[in-house]
Amino acid sequence: MHILQQRKVESNNSIAGKIGSTWRIAVWIGKGWRKHLQAAVGLFNMKSPSFIMASSSKFTVGYALTAKKTQSFMQPALISLARSKGITFAAIDRSRPLEEQGPFDVILHKLTTEAWNQQLRAYKLRDPEVLILDPPEAIKKVYNRQSMLQEVAALNFRHCRGKVGIPKQLVVDNDSTSISEKVARAGLKFPLVAKPKFVDGTANSHALSLAFNEVCLSELRPPLVLQEFINHGGVLFKVYIIGHIIKVVRRFSLPDVRENEVNKSGVIPFPRVSCAAASADGADLDPIVRELPPREMLESLSRELRGRLGLSLFNLDMIREGGKGSRFYVIDINYFPGYGKMPDYEKVFTDFLSSLAERKHKVSSVR
Ligand SMILES: Nc1ncnc2c1ncn2[C@@H]1O[C@H](COP(=O)(O)OP(=O)(O)OP(=O)(O)O)[C@@H](O)[C@H]1O
Ligand SMILES: O=P(O)(O)O[C@H]1[C@H](OP(=O)(O)O)[C@@H](OP(=O)(O)O)[C@@H](O)[C@@H](O)[C@@H]1OP(=O)(O)O
Ligand SMILES: [Mg+2]
Ligand SMILES: [Mg+2]
């Protein structure tokens, strides 16, 4: 059993009472003496303030994010809405061992070093009931553009409202001189989008280019993924997934490539065309191109992918072939994307965390 009970200690006879009747103590029932001991240490040892804070709230979400992500995600609106639902966010102190912090009901993180993953594993051993969003092994899969889309391909997703696949692609790991041979062997059609194989949060991993013919392929620097460019009407759909909740926005994207452009030469680098500033939601678009992918199709697809990828927090970049019809492609998956720019993100995220708290409460009350 893992129930956090809060008690106002009023008895001056109790040990806690000796340090003042206004103290609240958190008592973990059924978690064994170690947890009691840690709670007691947290209470009486003033060196552990984060522990005291964490244990006096109903549902505590520890977070470990980059400074940039913290700034965009941990906005006051989210913090206060979550607090009104009994959810507290606690910054994980990266200068101290994670094991000494908490207890956390959830750990939200987007750090990828092996040392950090090791800390998460150690924490999970200490507190098996913590929910780590998301497990490092699952995140690793989407930090590599080779494995990123494998589950989408394997799913062979067909729904009565549409089909979803991935563009034909090829991974190039070594010597650039043989790229054209590999491309010919794989039967890839130009133009191709060249993407760095590894996504490591650096600007470099988002440095993409278009290659229009085989002559220029030797200019490319592996390791990379070469993906067939799909005309899609210049609009991309970002499907944000937050557990069972999905939210879709439109972004501008690369324009279609016409037949006569296919002979362009050279590798043409392009900037982050579909970034948040490229929102197309308020734009005057062709009504066919602007039509969002069918909701039931996306719900079913995201449910499948959450299971297969083992992730709760990610987005899919999706395009519609030719800008019309029911053939879709997933071209990119991002772990813990820029939720802070998503409309209503504070409500969506609070609802998600509330659903986790409710589930945890139900599980503990049946034990
Ligand atoms: N196969 C493709 N066909 C057509 N357009 C594509 C394709 N792949 C990428 N693009 C275009 O290039 C943009 C960037 O590609 P992608 O999303 O793979 O890169 P990224 O650096 O991972 O982006 P993000 O900032 O979303 O992480 C897309 O938003 C889309 O406009
Ligand atoms: O910078 P933003 O807030 O826009 O978020 C972007 C995020 O950067 P961050 O992790 O530093 O926040 C990127 O992560 P890295 O690949 O670079 O790790 C990637 O997930 C993008 O797809 C996100 O943009 P979005 O897809 O949501 O438009
Ligand atoms: Mg993308
Ligand atoms: Mg990406």
TrEMBL record:
InterPro entries: ATP-grasp, Inositol_tetrakis-P_1-kinase, InsP(3)kin_ATP-grasp, ITPK1_N. It comes from the Eukaryota. Mg(2+) 1 binds at D317, D332. It holds the Pfam family Ins134_P3_kin. It is an enzyme of class 2 (transferase). It catalyses: 1D-myo-inositol 3,4,5,6-tetrakisphosphate + ATP = 1D-myo-inositol 1,3,4,5,6-pentakisphosphate + ADP + H(+). Keywords: ATP-binding, Kinase, Magnesium, Metal-binding, Nucleotide-binding, Transferase. Binds 2 magnesium ions per subunit. Mg(2+) 2 binds at D332, N334. Kinase that can phosphorylate various inositol polyphosphate such as Ins(3,4,5,6)P4 or Ins(1,3,4)P3. Monomer. This is Inositol-tetrakisphosphate 1-kinase.
